[in-house]
């Protein structure tokens, strides 16, 4: 059992540690790893690209764009936006 005040430290990884593990696995497999800013990725609509805090319902893990009505799981939306950032990076590097 873990006390509530000790829960965060005992059951979560630091983002730095997670990033180190991902970079290690990337180097080991020959994949390039890029760091993207995750800020607002779960609040930005991947269709119309508008950002609004009200787009995301944290308790239900649901995203619904207030502008265009697109809806999905909020983690999926974040992943779609991070993919877009990665694709943009690849396109810029290839030029």
Instruction: Note poorly predicted spans.
Output: none
The arrangement of helices and strands along the chain is HHEEEH
**Average pLDDT number:** 90
How large is the share of residues in beta strands? Answer: 5-15%
Tell me the total number of β-strands.
3
Portion in helices: 40-55%
The separation of the N and C termini measures 54 Å
Count, helices: 3
Structural class: mainly alpha
Spatial order of the strands forming the largest sheet = 1-2-3
Question: What does this protein look like?
Answer:
- This protein has 95 residues and is mainly alpha-helical.
- It contains 3 helices and 3 strands; from the N terminus they run ααβββα.
- A 3-stranded antiparallel sheet has the order 1-2-3.
């Amino acid at each position: 059992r873990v006390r509530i005040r000790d829960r965060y430290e005992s059951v979560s990884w630091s983002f730095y540690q997670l990033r180190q593990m991902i970079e290690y696995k990337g180097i080991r497999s020959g994949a390039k790893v890029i760091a993207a800013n995750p800020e607002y990725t779960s609040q930005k609509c991947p269709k119309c690209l508008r950002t609004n805090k009200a787009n995301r319902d944290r308790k239900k893990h649901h995203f619904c764009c207030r502008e265009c009505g697109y809806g999905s799981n909020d983690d999926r939306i974040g992943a779609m936006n991070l993919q877009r950032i990665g694709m943009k990076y690849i396109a810029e590097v290839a030029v």
